[in-house]
Amino acid sequence: MIFKRSERGKAPVEPVTLKILVAGGFGVGKTTLVGAVSEIKPLRTEELLSEAGRPVDDTSGVSGKHTTTVAMDFGRITLREDLVLYVFGTPGQDRFWFLWDELATGALGAVVLADTRRLEDCFAAVDYFERRSIPFVVGVNCFEGASRYPADAVRQALDLDPAVPVVMCDARERQSVKEVLIGVVQHAMAAAAAAREPATT
């Protein structure tokens, strides 16, 4: 457990640790996002794409991608002295989805990373978190050369609930990613508070 002393003479602060998932399609930027924001050297489980995997690894639109995550990415970021996020990036290909249930255990919320050039690739992640009632935000990774659309257009294309936040981001930029993660925490806390409210008759 991590303990910090905020000021001389004060008792150590034991931070609350929260687990956040980062999901989305193959090559959407999950590994980049975790690496950009992590204050520790991120754990990566990347392997080179092989000829054997070519029939099942759709590299259209990501022709420059030569590696793939086969288990998870892991990083950590301290938002405040008393709040630490553990960030887990999920594998993107269908054949590794069996790992998602393990990674999702205990998660406060999630980021579904989207690429407007291949928006359909994040449908599976949206469905996964909706079915399990895990709060999530959609982060539209603004790739160079990709068309830019208003958040409402992305929401409509993904058929999202009006309460699901849609934010534009750059997975390479620490501050941009940090703001997305803060959005996940805020959204998850609001969802938890709403669930505790008694139903009105």
Automatic annotation (TrEMBL):
The yes or no answer to whether the keyword Transmembrane helix is present is no
Keyword Nucleotide-binding recorded: yes
CDD domains named among the record's database cross-references: Ras_like_GTPase
Keywords, ordered alphabetically: GTP-binding, Hydrolase, Nucleotide-binding
- Database matches in Pfam families: ATP_bind_1 (PF03029)
Q: Which Gene3D superfamilies match?
A: P-loop containing nucleotide triphosphate hydrolases
Superkingdom as given in the UniProt entry? Bacteria
**Which family is annotated?**
Belongs to the GPN-loop GTPase family.
State the name under which the record lists this protein.
ATP/GTP-binding protein
